[in-house]
Please model this.
Amino acid sequence: MRAWWIVSLALAFATEPHAQPGPTLTPPVLTEAPQPQLPEAAITAGVSGTVELVVTIDRGGAVTEARVTRSDSPLLDDAAIAAARRHRFEPATRDGVAVASRVRLAVDFPRPVMAAPSRTAKASAQPAATPATEETSEPSAPPPVTDVGVRGRRAEAESVRRTASREELRTMPGGGGDPLRAVTSMPGFARAPAFTDLLIVRGSAPSGTGVFFDGAFLPRAFHFGGLTSVVPTELLERIDFYPGNFPARYGRHDGGVLDLRSRALDATAPRVMAQVDLLDARAMVEAPLPWGARLVAAARRSWLDAWLGPVLERNDVGARRVPVYEDAQVILELSPTRRSTLRAGLLFSRDTYELVAKRPFAGEPALSGAATNESGFWRALFSFESEPTPSLRLSTMVSLGPDLQRERLGTLLVDSRIDYLSGRGEVTWDAAPWLSARAGWDLLLGTYDATLRIPNLPVIGGAEPPPITSQRPFTWQGRGTLSRPAAYVEARLTPTERWQVVPSLRADYTAGFSEWTVSPRLSSRLELRRGPARTALRGGLGVYRQPPDYSAVIPIFGVPSLRSSRAVHTSLGVEQGLGEGVSASLEGFHKSIDGIPSHDPSRGPVATNANGASGRVVGAEVTLRLSPGGRVSGMLGYTVSRSTRRDTPGGATRLFDFDQTHVLSAVARVRAGRGVTLGARYRAATGVPYTPCVGGSLAADSGVYTCVGGAPWSARLPAFHQLDLRLDKTWERERWSVTAYLDVQNVTNRGNVEGVSYSFDKSQVTWQSGLPILPIAGVRVEL
Amino acid sequence: MCGLACAASCSDDFESASSVTSVRVLAVQLDTPFARPGAAVSMTMLAHDGGAPRDAGRPLSIAWFGGCDAPDDDSPAACYPRLAWLRALSPGELDGTVARDGVGHGPRFTYRVPPDLLERHAARVGEPVARGLSYVYFAVCAGRLVADGAQRPRAGIPVTCVDAETGREAGPARFVSGYVPIRAYEGLVNHNPVLGEVSVGGAVAGPCDDARACGEGRRCVEGRCELSLPRCDADARDDCPALDVTQAVMDESYELDDATASTGISAEGELLWVAYFTTSGAFDAPVATLFEPTGGRRPKGESMGALRLTPGFTGPMRLWAVVHDGRGGVAWSRVDAVVR
Model:
């Protein structure tokens, strides 16, 4: 695998002349920076990070010595030294005469190919120097050197961006090796109920959080039941998680953002990976191609059908087609020039099942009979990134393909196809050492063709509908278009070396609702102290608009007068280094949301016909992190928050459906040696609120009781606690490695409550327990 | 999918809905499941007090409150504010000794659908045929019905049930409240399902004029002989042998579903299912599918009920099979049996 590297060299230009008249110093200038290669051990371990070195440059501009001064992982050191030795410089000069010099160099291994932030760092590597001492020497003498001050890669001023590396994602205890399920252990996420694909971020509705793949919006992030993500960990470099105050390049969501970042492909040698566990089997082939191109192809298929069918049969559920999920990815990458990267890819995902409940649900007989599902998508992706000049970067991305959903449950059906075309173009210009500007466009187009037969479902502000079985479902068939273009600008200002301010503006248009919105945002980061005990303040204030759901263009779901909801995110936090590899942060946040689409009965029966709901979230997050790379790594995250909603203007304030006052997540990993890694994750969360039934009301035509609700959201489920463990053992040889793993979820077999179950007439109540102890064993082979 | 699997597999300790051990409303049948605007719709309630002492029944108070026309969002809950007038009902108006417009008593009630109901209904995209909807509410009590003066939002109809002697709230075992939707169309028709015989353990209750035609120890109840069932001597109900109960349903019951037929997407039939009830023991599954919208008639094995009697129980008992067609059509059969 080739790791892009970043010289965040930064030689601070000779900005401070000597106070005394003296010789004129010119720092060395980087002229050639070959790409380093990650050692196999680092690839296997999924290690990435930064290595800082001091290099000695002779009078000819060659690196004669390189010494590591700080490293995120010992596995990276040799590769960094080797790369540094291949660098070429224009030598430093003293009064116009070349002299030997010494500079500090930071080699960054995170792949920056598709990652704008890393690109930014590379481009901002402006030679600059602060002369310290200087000696000249004769050729025969040991080379005296010029120590040159270094300005390293700046942290970007996103108010909060939390990043999980591939290794963290793959080995997250209880995550089953799945990236999205693993990343939800980060602070900012509330716990989602079992067997759901909900992403609940900082008290927002799940629909408020968008999932992107290299910047392209993914309408469907999980396979059914939230079992696993549609993109496997093996293809990812990392996940960037923005719990709020995200940059202007992301829009159409008022909660948070998850951006799955694909990794660079290996240009050195073919590589094969195969893995099988209780849920699925997967394979990946990666190979260099002629003309420097690289290719990766991966496929995965669940084999639930091999064992789930009999389980379902025993529970009176017949399986005409046993549940199967499958996905595949192909990515071709090539570099037409040294400063450009072209990518073409294909993502495919499909879920299918056809089940028959031999005994109907007494609680809703209309949902009996066959339950069929065939849903999925495919996307063709094209991207091009280039750096025409060191200070200018261009990126373009286009994705197109359909989302398909064919579901049937009893008498109800949904059959829809949406063909999406989305794109993004971005130009970043480092205009000056204190200014980097970015401008971009972001487009989402689509055509839909849908057939629906659905009942009334509960809507915000609406009255409780009768049981589905007592309703006459209504049917709609039609087609139409979606169009949501946007443009954004961002300035990255660096008034001082330690202070960064990022004002930005995003404009969105939502066709179908004829709505223009403008969203100003501001974030800032101030470093008070550097080094291992660094201290930094960061904050953000911004407007986030979320247009009505795509379904709202369909006349049974929405009306043209609907408008986007408007959220104002405010956050303020402090980061504190606590020594090498240990850091802590505290983040306070507030979010007010107005204009949430809702239902006003006086405006007719359409499900969402008003923007009458509003909400408020306030909370704080604490993170303690041990940086990966050593024998022990870990993370402790704690969130306290309160999320409330008002369903109608002037109505009563209630707890939001997903409000969780306390969410605690603690993860620890120990590299025990001999290829053994042990991990543990403990999670605890306040139970979500619910509206208790205080009685039942019989719909006599169907024989189904409906709940007579008490005070809305006035009760809570019991608190959730779960301990997960994971053991990985890797046998590594020169040409292959084998990893066996055991991921045990809910080790203590605690009967966590996931819901409330009532007797048929709603007169008695009990808890519904969730996942029992679930051990998942698997093996992965890499060649 | 997971919900489906879980719903089928996750068990709880609640008594089966098929076990009639309290006051129950087992069905309400409309003479015309789809009514014409302006028509009078007659409804008949099948109620049973399974909690009454075996040797002495207790009277059931049944009251009807009608109606609520063209409710917002088709929601019965949206009508609760319109039913505030029930809070002022006197005890006599609730027990039927004092007449009151809009209040009925006993197992039958007639409600006249407003002639302009279709016009009052807020038309919805996806409804190619104009329709109207009214709700009639009811309360059934083994005790005395009283108006509930407490202002409890979203707490159902403001009528409750108290013990006739103590005046204390009777609780859910003695009180059922609910509603009946009345759907109105100008031209559409739906019929109640047409039922055949019920067999229990392979036996069908034969016709009779009196007990002599039924054999020793068996009564003639409403023109049918009691069936004779063997007592279960197992320790637990689950260990009792299952008695197969089958409700025959005529093919003409399986009508075209207007919700599909009028859109041209795919014409499909009704979903028909049967709910089984018993006064002794319980059915393994309280409901069974008879006809699927796309699959037609389900295999006999899947539409059958499996009855397990209460261990040690002897004496008279009763079974019901209530068939629903998913569009308001209802029909039922009753079987009397004696366990010995």
User: Anything to note?
Assistant: Confidence is low (pLDDT under 50) at residues 1-11 of chain B.
